[in-house]
Specification:
With about 325 residues, the chain is an alpha+beta fold. The protein is about 35% helix and about 10% strand. A four-stranded antiparallel beta sheet has the order 1-2-7-4, sandwiched between helices. It is globular, with a radius of gyration of 21 Å. The relative contact order is 0.17. The chain binds iron/sulfur cluster (SF4) (2 copies).
């Protein structure tokens, strides 16, 4: 039974970690609610490379946890690996979907995991008020995870964990309770002289100083509402997202992933794909991270891929 606030036990990082592991959350870090000043500088630097249409909240608000939840005392940052290993298949006439959209929408998966994890914590350690954020424009999950020691920034602009690589999703739980934790130092980059991702990127989206130019990035372009003619040409084999720079990274090579068999979620046949109705699309892909973008934009991507295959452009 949940304890009342007069008999609240002290909560430590070890207690939280133990509970998270039982809920299938292997990566956990902690932050105090001070604004992430260094992250703010990095975000402004990245904005100078070009803003995406998803970044609408001002940087000063995105790095301030109190703006998202006034009573916050501690932030629990968590990571959950995603993706899988598909069977070998012929890519001809197919459009690739990035691994982030292969299973159930990660927003839902992480929200559900965080909710049952917090219910268990409350059960064991007494009442807490909390807010769960997963890839929400209000906060910057990747920056929080970096500051909490969950990985280093790679030259591919992603957060990389030495054991889990870069294929993991991040969420944050803002809790109105002090948790005893030892602040971890952010990890220094382990890229060294490697530049595989920079060389692998088809449109040179990755630049000096761990920067990414959004309008050169296939992943962003497959989600962007309208494309100019040069952006249209940059969409290559991907229907949604892009994993090319992650596949090039040696930190992902050693990560073992579960098998995924259903090619509808990995690389559907383009000709059949464009015949779908809105209803069919919702039924087949509505539960995935690609579903939120809607059929209109994904069908546009499919038509661009068909055009590219037919002209060889
Ligand atoms: S996601 Fe694709 S296009 Fe974007 S930086 Fe990586 S390789 Fe380049
Ligand atoms: S491919 Fe190399 S440079 Fe790029 S993120 Fe991975 S380790 Fe760093």
């Amino acid at each position: 039974m949940a304890k009342d606030r007069t008999s609240i036990a002290t909560l430590s990082d070890k207690d939280v970690l133990k509970c998270a592991q039982t809920q299938g959350i292997p990566m956990i870090g902690f932050l105090s609610p001070d604004p992430l000043v260094d992250a703010g500088k990095r975000l402004l630097q990245r904005e100078a490379m070009g803003k995406t249409e998803f970044e609408k909240v001002a940087v000063r608000d995105r790095i301030n946890f109190c703006k998202a939840f006034e009573q916050v005392q501690t932030i629990i940052v968590f990571g959950v690996p995603y993706g899988g290993t598909p069977p070998p298949f012929n890519e001809k006439g197919r459009g690739r979907i990035a691994e982030i959209a292969w299973g159930r929408d990660y927003h839902r998966v992480l929200q559900e995991k965080a909710k049952s994890f917090m219910e268990q914590l409350v059960q064991q350690f007494g009442p807490m008020v909390y807010r769960i954020f997963v890839d929400n424009a209000r906060l910057v999950d990747r920056e929080s995870a970096y500051e909490a020691g969950l990985g280093f920034f790679g030259k591919n602009n992603l957060l990389i964990h030495p054991d889990y690589g870069s294929f993991f999703n991040i969420g944050q739980i803002l809790v109105d309770r002090k948790i005893d934790f030892k602040k971890k130092k952010p990890m220094a980059s382990r890229c060294g002289t490697c530049e595989r991702c920079v060389r692998a990127c088809p449109h040179k989206a990755l630049g000096e100083g761990f920067c990414l130019e959004p309008t050169r990035c296939i992943s962003y372009l497959t989600q962007k509402k309208s494309l100019n003619p040069s952006e249209e040409k940059r969409i290559q084999t991907y229907l949604y997202g892009c994993d090319i720079c992650q596949y090039a990274c040696p930190f992902n090579a050693k990560v073992r992933k579960p098998s995924v068999e259903d090619l509808r979620y990995i690389a559907p046949k383009l000709k059949g794909f464009i015949q779908m109705t809105d209803e069919n699309f919702k039924r087949t892909y509505g539960h995935t991270a690609m579903g939120w973008r809607g059929f209109k934009i994904i069908k546009r991507n499919a038509l661009l891929l068909i055009k590219k295959h037919s002209t060889g452009a």
